[in-house]
Amino acid sequence: MYCGFGHADSGFVPIFIYAIFGSSRQISIGPAALTSLLVSNVLGKIVDSSDALYTELAIVLTLMVGILECIMGILRLGWLIRFISHSVISGFTTASAIVIGLSQAKYFLGYEIDRSSEIVPIIKSIISGADKFSWPPFVMGSIILAILQTMKHLGKSRKHLKFLRAMGPLTAVILGTSSAKIYHPSSITLVGDIPQGLPSFSIPKCFKHAKSLIPTTLVITGVAILESVGIAKALAAKNGYELDSNQELFGLGAANVLGSFFSAYPTTGSFSRSAVNHENGAKTGLAGVITGIVMCCALLFLTPVFEYIPLCALAAIVISAVISLVDYEEAIFLWPVSKKDFLLWTITAITTLFFGIEIGVLIGVGFSLAFVIHESANPHIAVLGRLPGTTVYRNIQQYPEAYTYNGIVIVRIDSPIYFANTSYIKDRLREYEIVVDKLTRRGPQVGRIYFVVLEMSPVTYIDTSAVQALKELHHEYKSRHIQIAISNPNRNVLLMLSKSGLVELIGKEWYFVRVHDAVQVCLQHVESIKEDHMASGSDSSPEETESSFFKSLLKQRGEDSSVAQLESGTNNKPSDLKHSDPLSEPLLFQKS
């Protein structure tokens, strides 16, 4: 079994420590199947589980996990775990559950199989030892497993029988122990002697293997945080109080650090036990303290009874628990909803099964980060059109009824602009000049794009590379007689643009509060371009007309015209336009 020496101690000392330092009122911490698997797999490669060194290394691992969690809590680094997506966790948990179940097969089959976190060596070992198969443990384990599954199903499907789900493991232990005491089957292995009494204080030692435990420390910490903080936040939301994830990290770390001095192995928040706490009305950390007191009584008075528990009964409990962790339904759900997340789930599950837990997690996280970087470097950019009868501008792909204007392209950038995505954004803007020109339906009839309006309200941040890219874009547009207008940048973005000189370069009068304000001004100038071109007739080329217009653009800026008149293409002169809407003034020139 997984680190059986520490299950009781992990369910005793850390509970009291967490009650002091933790922030969740419902979460129950202690040993977890997934954490136990990670501990067992890494330590099994170093030393046999019956060796005293095994216990010492597990205690050292607990201390390392606790220190890392405390450091992350103090430095407020809990946000790092957000880069591990739900799909990765689900795939990893599914594969780990399968490995856990197969690793317990030896207690059912009656012979030893290889310890491994990879599925292939386990299956090979099971097949090669088939001639040593023993019926008694298989029959007992199968019966107990069937009883557990039946009780779990009844507890889930019928509300008045939900107590059966919690009683399942206890029933399994009682049935197994009673059978062993009555029949004394020699072919069924029992737990054996368990030290009686409370754990004594001891300082962790055997740090010579600490370096080899670092990868597992990182994995256990990540899994522990995701499980504990995830369930703690969910329960906090259901019970109407705020939860500080960094304090939660520190509480878990303190529980593990101090627990390591009392022979505990890595503990974390348990989904199942926390759910039981919540369902039974736990409102404060006192529920955990009471659990600890019960554990204390068990350690003092009930350990002689545990000697006769068959290992196949405990294996049945573990297998019953991990069956619910096989989250194949998540994969079925992801396939039609998100192919990207389905791919993440599949990659993580397969690599975990065939290459081990640590490699599986690393590859899964690596792909998650790769997808995040790809999305960040290729942000969503939308061409906006005006919804009929409103001054609202929305994505023309999402709202086909939205219309655009001749000579103007309105673009919304839905992400921060920084060094990794500036090239992509510039390429898309060039592309939209051609594509959008074919979609225009309103306003004065002109032959090409003269204005590009950048809606920057979703842009929360820009860096110096983005500033340089905007300068280059401005010069490129200027050489082709295209003017940039910027709408609704937030305070920090506007400050960066101002400090870098981009506000002066583009012109203060081309910064607006609303997209509609920018469009009104641009429509006025598009009308003016059309009038100048018509007035020049054949005496000058379109290029000369455009050049002279842009040279005098600042001087010629008149008052805004009626939008209805501009949409219909009537020839109102800029000097005749009446300024009726103060909100159409530039962002940097608002009048009081």
From TrEMBL:
PROSITE patterns hit by this protein: STAS
| Pfam (any one) | Sulfate_transp
Provide GO CC annotations from the record.
membrane
Ranges for region Disordered: 533-592
Coiled-coil ranges from the UniProt annotation: none
Q: Which keywords does this chain's UniProt record carry?
A: Membrane, Sulfate transport, Symport, Transmembrane, Transmembrane helix, Transport
- Protein name, as recorded: Sulfate transporter 4
Q: Which species expresses this protein natively?
A: Gossypium arboreum
